[in-house]
Design brief:
The chain is an alpha/beta fold. The chain has one domain. About 30% of the residues lie in helices and about 15% in strands. It has four helices and seven strands. It has a four-stranded mixed beta sheet with strand order 4-6-1-5, with no helix packed on it. Strands 3-2-7 form a three-stranded mixed beta sheet, with helices on one face. Helix 3 packs parallel to helix 4. The mean pLDDT is about 90. It is a single-pass type II membrane protein. It is found in: Golgi apparatus membrane. Keywords: Glycoprotein, Glycosyltransferase, Golgi apparatus, Manganese, Membrane, Metal-binding, Signal-anchor, Transferase, Transmembrane, Transmembrane helix. Belongs to the glycosyltransferase 49 family.
């Protein structure tokens, strides 16, 4: 388990509603259109490897458990719980908006970590993320971080020369 990251499926919950306290409550909100996978309207690919359809189809467990493992795919930016030791540090060059979680997940993949999706746990964001709902400097920040990410991927080849994994 020292090389496993525990992925928490991430959702957006309509503003004004209380966060769900259980998977059953979340599924009810999802069915009513009051919850959806995180970034579902902006970047479905950024959360797709979590496999929300598969997760949704699992019966709510009586307690927290690993439901299934998924392979890393670009541009995944999972929310996860990691071991306290042995995890590469977050690259703090990624400031503001864009490529922060993507770069971290990419490096963890190259470093040999596996991704296991949890059932019985999830995270929620209050409000739906919608196009045009960001601050004015977002596009500039995204552009800077996109360039940084290209360099970052080249650095990973040097940092992990024996890894067969790439981003």
């Amino acid at each position: 388990w020292s090389r496993v990251l525990f992925v928490l499926p991430a959702f957006e919950v309509r503003r004004g509603l209380s966060p769900p306290g259980s998977k059953a409550e979340l599924l009810s909100l999802w069915a009513a259109g009051d919850a959806r996978p995180f970034y579902g309207a902006l970047c479905p690919r950024c959360q797709a490897p979590t496999d929300f359809g598969r997760w949704r189809g699992l019966l709510p467990p009586p307690r927290l458990r690993v439901a299934y493992e998924v392979p890393w795919r670009d541009p995944w930016e999972p929310f996860f719980v990691a071991p306290a030791q042995g995890v590469p540090p977050f690259d703090e060059r990624f400031l503001q908006y864009g490529f922060n979680r993507i770069s971290q997940a990419c490096e963890l993949h190259v470093a040999g970590f596996r991704f296991a999706v949890l059932d019985g746990a999830f995270v929620t964001h209050r409000g739906f993320k919608e196009p045009g709902g960001f601050h004015g400097a977002r596009e500039a920040e995204l552009g800077l971080n996109r360039g940084l990410f290209r360099n970052f991927r080249r650095e990973l080849r040097v940092r992990y020369p024996d890894s067969p994994r790439r981003c």
